[in-house]
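Q: My collaborator sent me two sequences in one message, no labels, and asked for predicted structures for both. Can we handle them in order? The first one she listed is below.
A: Yes, handling them in the order given. First sequence, followed by its structure tokens:
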Amino acid sequence: MKQEMININANLVAEPTFSSFENDGEEVVVANFTLVKKYGKGKEYINCAAYGEKAEKAKDFEKGDLIHVFGYFKKREKEGKTYKNFVVKSYNKIEKKEKNEEE
């Protein structure tokens, strides 16, 4: 099944957390972070995971940063619950413009 690739711009809820696991004898680093996207009065929380070399970039992220992510949603079931996670293919922090640059 082909994954639908999407772009999301949202704010970082908290500092990313890092972990690792072994895959085919190699250690794979994972950066996990949550983004929040506001819709009028509502909010959507998006749990994201960046793997391998992509995880390194998240070390520069801070709570509140505006982040652009590109990737796809992956669902999995565990103990009767469905978990939805966003697998990051590429991402970057969107820098705020300085006031004098906007004029």
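Q: And the one she listed second?
A: Here it is, processed independently of the first:
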Amino acid sequence: MKYLLIMQVNQEILDALPEDERKLIMDGHGEFMKTVQDSGEFILTQALAAPANSTVVTGTGGTPTVTDGPFMEAKEFMGGFYLIDCESKERAIEIAKLIPDTRIKGLSIEIRPAMFTCGADL
């Protein structure tokens, strides 16, 4: 089963961390990727730019509108993801707990089963 491990980022929390803690997170992501690559459960990962760099195309029932954004009230946003393939939801939870963000109060990983996967190399 494929699972998307979505990193929910709060930039204020990250900005408040001391530089050495930020480095531990970055190094921890490298260790995490090596662990899931070695286990054969890793498919891919992507880091995403902040929402301020986004453009939104919205359905209107006619011609779609294009705006900057999104402009959200929430402080958390999808900062990136890992796509993994593992045997169960329980294993996906175990893997998500290895992501260093889970050690920082206010950051989280959303685990969502993939319903359909298609790609050039998948």
